[in-house]
Write a structure and sequence with these properties.
binds flavin-adenine dinucleotide; globular; 3-stranded parallel sheet; Uridine Diphospho-n-acetylenolpyruvylglucosamine Reductase, domain 3; alpha+beta; Enolase-like, domain 1; 12 helices; single chain; 5-stranded antiparallel sheet
Amino acid sequence: MKPAPFDYCRPATVVEAVEALGSAESGRVLAGGQSLIPAMNFRLTDVSLLVDIGHVTDLPGVDTEVAGVTVGATATQSRVLNDDDAARVVPGLRAALRHVGHLQIRNRGTVCGSIAHADPAAELPALAVAAGAVIGITGPDGHRTVAASDFFLGPFWTALSDAEVVTEVHFPAAPVGSVTSVDEISRRAGDFAVAGLVAVIEVGDGAVRSARLVGFGVGGAPARLASAEAAMAGWAPDHPDRRLMEAAVEDTADAFDDIHATAWYRREAVATLLVRAARRALANGETS
Ligand SMILES: Cc1cc2nc3c(=O)[nH]c(=O)nc-3n(C[C@H](O)[C@H](O)[C@H](O)COP(=O)(O)OP(=O)(O)OC[C@H]3O[C@@H](n4cnc5c(N)ncnc54)[C@H](O)[C@@H]3O)c2cc1C
């Protein structure tokens, strides 16, 4: 199918982009277009003006410091995936991006686009919540920041208002001594996850010290798995898996059924991934 008719503009600054969005009946930011263009072609979304931010010059690139990594709105997923400094400070970025689509998609798709799109099966929103990321937003009233834990409100639904642009996402450095893993079950490599888990696990003396756990492809919006985090604290490989799995199942009560899997399957899958993440973190400390 072809999209319905729409207008197009290419602002040079963030302020111009915000003004253009505000001037349209139904303005939308165009970043990598990997989700928006298919949705327009299928006429799943109504767009009167596309505001292409690809030539905006006053956005950050990929800035890595000891405290974390800031990813600007035009930085592609491939650029971040291939950035060794970013991967050293926030290992979850590379771990998550390895699972995102295919090379061609990552070459155009942006990290901020994935965050703004808020697909419940996407890896990056879950990583943002697990890592404690902060989202920078510019709109008609200026610049504001929102914690990732407050940004995702439901499937494809965020705290972004009309005429606001995500300008950057800041991922804090992973805690020293932690292992970040992003693991998922999907039908084929590159497909969206049927169910997945981001785990940031701090280990010490052969046991888990603390964990930040977020499932994806399970509920409507990425959220911490509070019971599982509590059950994992102090867990060691000679402890039974059962308590961890029960806690994960408790935390995923809002799992959904669809043509790919039942809610029951998704909850069991997250529980299994959780045990795998704990065992891997304790066994070798490698980031997967
Ligand atoms: C075949 C295929 C497989 C895929 N597999 C995966 C996968 O496994 N995992 C995964 O996570 N993703 C997957 N994707 C989606 C991909 O990661 C997209 O690139 C991403 O979801 C959106 O990024 P984008 O830059 O392309 O955004 P766009 O498509 O340009 O925009 C998506 C939405 O976000 C809004 N938006 C984008 N940037 C901003 C901004 N800076 N400020 C405000 N709003 C903004 C747009 O207005 C639009 O509503 C896949 C896509 C395809 C086509």
